[in-house]
Amino acid sequence: MKRIVRNHKVRNFHQAKWDEPIIFELHKPGERGVEVPQAEAMIESIVGDGISRIPDTMKRTALPALPEIGQAKVLRHYLRLSQETMGSDFNVEIGQGTCTMKYIPRINEMMIRTPKIMDLHPLQDVSSSQGILEVFYKLDLAMREISGMDKFTFQPSSGTQALLAMASIVRAYHDSRGEGEQRNEIITTIFSHPSQAATAVVKGYKIITLYPDADGFPDIEELKKVISPRTAGFVVANPEDTGIYNPRIKEFTDLVHEAGGICYYDQANANGLLGVTRAKEAGFDMCFFNLHKTFAAPHMCGGPATGALGVVDALTPFLPGPIVEYDGERYDLKEVGDLSIGKVRSFHGVAQTVLRSYAWVRSLGAEGLRQVAHTAVLNNNYLYHKILKIRGASAPYVKGNRLEQVRYSWEQMTEETGVTTEDVTRRMCDFGLHYWTSHHPYVVPQPFTLEPTESYSKEDLDEYINALQQISDEAYSNPEIVKTAPTRSTVHRIEDSSFDDPKEWCITWRAYLKKTTPNE
Amino acid sequence: METRRKASVHPYIPNMIPEVQRQMLDEIGVERIQDLYDIIPDAIKMDRLMDLPPALSEFELKREIDKLLQKNKSANETINFLGAGCWQHFIPAVCDEINQRSEFVTAYAGEPYEDKGRFQSLFEYQSLVAELVDMDVVNVPTFDWAQAASTSLRMASRITGRTEVLLPATIDRDKLMIIANYITPQLSYQLVAFNDPSGELDLEDLKAKVGPNTAAVYFENPTFLGTIESQGQQIADIAHAAGALYVVGVDPSSLGVLKPPSQYGADIICGDLQPLGMHMNYGGGQAGFIATRDEEKFVMEYPSRLFGIAPTIVEGEYGFGDVAYERTSFAHRETGKESVGTQTALWGITAGVYLALLGPYGMQELGQTIMQKSQYAADLLAAIDGVKIRLQSTFFKEFVVDFNGTGKTVREIHQQLLAEGIQGGKDLSEDFPELGQCALYCVTEVHAQEELETLAAAIKTACAIQVKEEVESV
Questions:
Q1: Mind listing the pLDDT tens digit for each residue in A346-357?
Q2: How close B12 comes to chain A (CA, Å)?
Q3: Sign of the CA dihedral A280, A283, A286, A291?
Q4: What is the pTM of this model?
């Protein structure tokens, strides 16, 4: 037979499209998806229908207008929707810089799906939860070694919640020293995640934002100007979202400490630093790791997740509780004292994710973790080197090596062709690849942020680079191809003007029906 | 035959192949990977290998973790009567199937074009919960109920321009800690008393405490102590008369039989999704929801993502996207509404699957079964000498069991129950000292009649041992 030629540089992809109705449109009166357990006949004969005792003021008078759908139809509907979703298992997920989408080991997903985890109640007696408590404690020990901190909690269920917990600890610490009123400012940088500033505001702080110097480093002269007896804390990511590591970080933390402030480190993304450098030596009092980023737990469409929060000894009394302790024989949940910020999330956090990350650390060991960092940084610099050769692309600021990610810019391409980074987002779908611009503010014009992590092979990286190369070629030769994208995704361009108009936006199906049904 | 050195390349890190690394380093123009770290000063670099346990292969890992987890005893191996914010319910298999789908498990921040299914699933989740609570706007889930309540209170504060909130004295003490941390320093709170033994909110105390600076009256139905409040509308009227908003927390598993709070005056409804298809997961199954009317003043105060439906350029095609994105801290950092980031979206999708499976009649039957079984259990316990049900209002799935008459502490009784393979209810003696030796028991549709009778017999025995000991000591 004829040899089948397969020499295209980008993937001949088309995403699944099922033209799937909204679930309410599947409603068929009389169908049902599952049978609910019923009370035994004897119980019913003794207590009756159970609901007659509800006070009349509180009885539901009309059934909720949920759809009635047979089980196979429900399953088919959601499986189709899952196929219209491109998780990181399906693409070379390097386009969500700052969020380290990496390989999610299947064994870990299997191990969390045991009744020994899924069917544990968080308040059950510790004698019957020694296994999970041991996991919490042993991951705490590993995190201490990785960061240099002295104690971890896994209660926060995201990076944002860990940042809130850290801002809360800053406030509790200064309050305990009678300086709570005076210290009302938190210093951060413009290339930090928006949650750093936003969570500090929730705790009542005024935000002071440092802008980068000409090379993209946080400006130490600016820090010296804004630091004062009002400084409560300093929060920063390092490397920042640009991928630039601040080599003078210890000078920053020393300056803040001299002024009486607390330094806390956004290590949501520590992928390039494992086994290379630690929060403690850089002078931080607290840090957190997103287990759903660096530690290979999945992101699950946006949670639930875990922000593992570590502190130095002096701040352990302020941790949310209870915390897991071990006396050499038995693991226990120790209630925290009066200085504690209390709690930030129900119970003990997301236990499944704690187990996933413990398993990941155990599967790599110290040398493996260092290989993770080294390979992530190698992959990133390879990608960086290749992307700078693509017409119209650049990487603002420092010209040296970056760590695990880079914030790039299509400024030149946009000026020369009119094709924007938003257009590239849509066009990348046509090749089966996820690409993200960046979060606000767009200090880098026409930004895009890539982070290859350790999970991808050279061939994977080349595939991604080839897709960007092709889009650049299209932008310079026939920009309409990019501007009218996507053409091979599940959907076409969305008419999104309604999303910002209160008269038009439809946040639920019932609102949609009301707003789109003509008046009689 | 050629053999390869063991574990030279880790299965999770393909680019550890030395030849590939050399090729990539040559491309970059760097001699060694370590050179890529030149920017980090030596003074803060690690000069040793981390001190961690040795790496395990997949086979070894599975064996190790299995052994470790055997130390846990799941709710299936005991009879579990713990609730208090995390409840044991029947989980339809389809919920588990969908929530372990690789596409959903590993998706994150995809655009509406590549993640259309995720956007639609979450829009549908919002729409299904909206029918349950009879409101037109529901958010993409928050961390948990406590977070949903905290944010609801902050929303109310921004809408009213006031800074004090009233909370029920029946509130879960853990939830109170979370709310207190989240609302301070800008907002303060006071607790409104409840009537013992009815369990109803003390309206006179509410009237005394509500005032011109009250942003919100927060109330829960059923209450944390399990009772169904009958005065929902009166509380709403008192709150509204003072210019405050009425925020009601609700267990969604009750809404097939209980009136949704929107029908007795609630302006904002919140609660936990965990009962709708999530395993307990040692507390990792919690997820919060917030619902309001479709009014700009409410919608613009949500910090969370809100997914909306819209047309595309192709007729007949549904598209989805973020509604009023500029509200969020993603867009506006410190000037956005509170903060948003990773929350609990997969649990939202799962809750949608659950509601689609149960439908209106399933939700009604669920509520009915829970009420029948919990009432039966309470009657059995109340028949034991020295044991009574403390609060008299009708309850939903939890109820306060009063052991004060047994002369034994809740802890002592629990130790007896544990020996029988029973996890008793939550000990309330520390959180609610005014109740003395009481415990909050939870009975749901999963409990068989036989298990309820086993519980009653075990408690009776535990109390009898107490009597015997007393006799001996005399």
A1: 999 999 999 999
A2: 6
A3: negative
A4: 0.97
